[in-house]
Amino acid sequence: MQLSDDCFAADDHLMTTAEALNLLSGRIEPIGTQEMIPLRQSRKRVLAEDVISDYSVPPKGNSAVDGYSFAFESLRNGQDTSFRVVDRAAAGHPATVVPGRGEAIRVFTGAVMPSGHDTVAMQEDCEIDGDNVVIPPGLSPGANSRRAGEDVEKGDVVLRRGQLLRAQDLGIAASVGRTELSVYQSVRVAVFSTGDEIREPGKLLPEGAIYDSNRYVLMSLLEALPVEVIDLGILPDDPDAVAVALRSAAQEQDILLTSGGVSVGEEDHVKNAVSENGSLYFWRLAIKPGRPLALGQVDGTPFVGLPGNPVAAMVTFIRFARPLLLRLAGGTDLEPKLYRVRADFSHRKKRNRREWVRARLKSGKDGTPEAEKFAREGAGILRSLVESDGLIELPEDMTEVVPGTMVEFLPFAEVIS
Ligand code: AMP
Ligand code: MG
Fold first, then answer.
1. pLDDT at 4
2. Are the beta carbons of 352 and 396 closer than 8 angstroms?
3. 197 touches 210 (CB < 8 A)
4. What is d(CA 186, CA 190) in angstroms, rounded to the nearest whole number?
5. Distance between CA 389 and CA 174 in Å, rounded?
6. Strands 369-373 and 339-343
7. What 8-state DSSP symbol labels residue 90?
8. Interior/surface letters 16-48, b for 16+ CB within 10 angstroms, e for the rest
9. pLDDT grade, residue 415 (50/70/90)?
10. CB-based contact 275:264 (threshold 8 Å)
11. Ligand 1 pocket residue status of 308, Cβ below 6 Å
12. Is 289's C-beta closer than 6 angstroms to any atom of ligand 1?
C-alpha cells in the first residue's frame, strides 16, 4: 500500500483521542487483498465475506433430552397419559416406525423427532408400565425438543465481513458446512527498537544501558491481531543504518512500528531517517501517559512511532496503533470495549486530557467489580502494567475520582487474547 506524503498531516493543535481515532480511520484505507484459507487457520483473521448459511441448523427438529416423544395433542388434560412405546430413536439413528395416535417413541438426545411428534417427556419424569410409558401432566407443547433452524435458518447471515474471527465464529462456520473462509491478507508489521542504550536481553549490559522490553510487549500484542510480525531487532543510533533498515523494510512490509526515539526536539536518527525518505508528523495528543504520536511514511509505507516509556508505549499501542492496524487489516470493529466499574481509589487529573490509570479488579462488598489503582504512576513503571488487570480510561472532562465513582475499565484480556 502506498500513502501520499501528507496522509498524516495535522496542524499543531492539541488533539483529542476521538479526533485522532477519526483521523486514523479516515485516512487509512484497508489493504484489501483477499484469500481463501482453511477454516482451521482462520482464527484471528478478518473475515472478507458475509457468511450466509445454505442450511438450517439443526436441519431437523430433534430431542433435547433422553425420554419419550409423543404428539402433544394426545396428552390428557391434568392427568397421567399412557402411551404404547413402538420404537426407539437415537442420534444418527432415526425411528423406522411411523407412530400412530396414542403411541410414543423412546428417544435420546439429538435423535430426529419422530414423524408427528412435537414434545418429549424427560425419562426421569416418566413411569414404565410394561410396553407403555406413563407421562405426567404439566408439559407445554414442544417441551424438550429443538425445532429445525432453531440455531440458524437457511439464508441467515451468521458472520459479517470485517469481523475478527474467534473460536466460536469458526464453530458456526463449520456448523453451516464451510471448510474455507475468505479473509483479508495478514498485515506485515516490521517492529524495531532504536537507541544506543537499548540492549537485547541475554547480551552484556554496559553501564547506563537497559534491556529492550517494548519490543517484547509490542510483538506479543501484535500476535492477537491479523498480522505477521517481522522482528527487525534493535537499530543503532546511526542515521545511515536506520535509513537503510527502514527503507528495506518498507519495500517488503505493510507498516513500520517502533517505540522511543521520536520525541519532539530530540536529536534523533529515526526522525531524520523517516523524514528524509518520506514524511513524518507529530500529533500532539491530549493524553496521559504518552507524548506525541509520530506518524508518517517511508517510501509510501506507513510508519508509526510510539513513545519510548514502557507504559506509554503499551497504552498508545492499545488505543491508537491497534485500531490503525485493524483498519489496515480490513477490520470494522476497531476500538476495544470498555466496561463500567466502581472505583475504589481517589485520583485527581487535569481537565481536557484523557488519562489511563493502571488498575486491578477486585470484587466489592456487593459483588460488583471494583477497581484498585496501582500506587505508582510513572510512565516508565512497567510493573504497574504487570500488576494490573487493565486500564481505567478517564475522560477529558473528568477532574477527580473518589471511591464510588463509576469509571470505564479496559481489560487487557480484551486486546490480548
Ligand atoms: P525516548 O522516547 O527515546 O526518549 O525514550 C523514553 C524512555 O523510554 C527512555 O528512558 C528510554 O530509555 C526508554 N525506552 C526507549 N525504548 C525502549 C525500549 N525498547 N525498551 C525499554 N525502554 C525503552
Ligand atoms: Mg531515545
1. 80
2. yes
3. yes
4. 13
5. 33
6. parallel
7. B
8. bbeebbebbbebbebbeebeeeebeebebbbbb
9. very high
10. no
11. yes
12. no
pLDDT in tens, 108-162: 999 999 999 999 999 999 999 999 999 999 999 999 999 999 999 999 999 999 9
b/e 333-350 (16+ beta carbons within 10 angstroms → b): ebebebeebbbbbebebe
Give the 3-state secondary structure of residue 74.
Answer: helix
**What is the distance in A from the centroid of ligand 2 to the CA of 266?**
8
Nearest-angstrom CA–CA distance, 343 and 254? 41
In the predicted structure, residue 184 carries a pLDDT above the cut 90:
yes
| C-alpha Rg value of the chain to the nearest Å | 30
Ligand 1 pocket check for 191: Cβ under 6 Å = no
Report all structural domains of the chain as residue ranges with CATH numbers, in order of start.
Answer: 17-33+186-328 (3.40.980.10), 62-146 (2.170.190.11), 339-414 (2.40.340.10)
Distance, CA 257 to ligand 2 centroid (Å)?
15
Residues 6+ apart with CB under 8 A from 342: 364, 368, 369, 370, 371, 404, 405, 406, 407
Q: How far is CA 314 from the centre of its chain?
A: 17
Q: Are 207 and 235 in contact (CB under 8 A)?
A: no
Distance 246 CA to ligand 1 centre (A): 19
Closest ligand to the CA of 195 = 2
Please choose from 235, 282, 309, 386 the residue to mutate so as to test ligand 1's pocket, defined by most ligand atoms within 8 A of CB: 309
How far apart (Å, rounded) are the C-alpha atoms in residues 46 and 368?
Answer: 34
Residue nearest to atom 17 of ligand 1 (CA): 308
Q: What pLDDT score was predicted for residue 358? A: 98
Query: What separation in Å is there between the alpha carbon of 105 and the centre of ligand 1?
Result: 72
Question: For the whole model, what pTM was predicted?
Answer: 0.92
Cell numbers at 189, concatenated:
508489521
Q: Kindly state if the Cβ of 212 falls inside 6 Å of ligand 1.
A: yes
**What ranges in 148-260 are assigned the alpha helix state H?**
167-175, 214-222, 239-252
Digit-coded pLDDT (tens) for 172-183: 999 999 999 999
Ligand nearest to the CA of 234: 1
Closest ligand relative to 197 C-alpha: 1
C-alpha cell at 36: 481463501
